[in-house]
Design brief:
Elements (H helix, E strand, L loop, with lengths): L3 E12 L2 E13 L15 H8 L8 E8 L2 E2 L5 H7 L21 H5 L1
Antiparallel strand pairs: 1-2, 1-3, 3-4
Amino acid sequence: MSLLEVQDLSVSLKTAQGLQDVIRHVNFSMDAGESHGIVGESGCGKSIFALALMSLLPPDSQTKGKIILEGQDVLGLNSTQICSIRGNRIGMIFQEPMTALNPVQKIGAQIG
């Protein structure tokens, strides 16, 4: 069993023109000890994808598919359950310049 498995993930966000697809049919799996990088041009959906994995999308967004973390579908969890795994079992380093990691310090020291 994979540590994290994403199955047919699609995300739509509410706009003035209605719901707009921003991520379509993403699939991947990740085992313990593996690393994955998400690359792409600005505006291609990297941050939305990461926010979907953490269940941090706006309430008026629409998410379809499955995000299975350690055998549990994250999309089926209530807010109390998802809060209990955020930061404990899954986390995200945001790309904001003021909160980004310092490249001259060890990651463990910064996170600790």
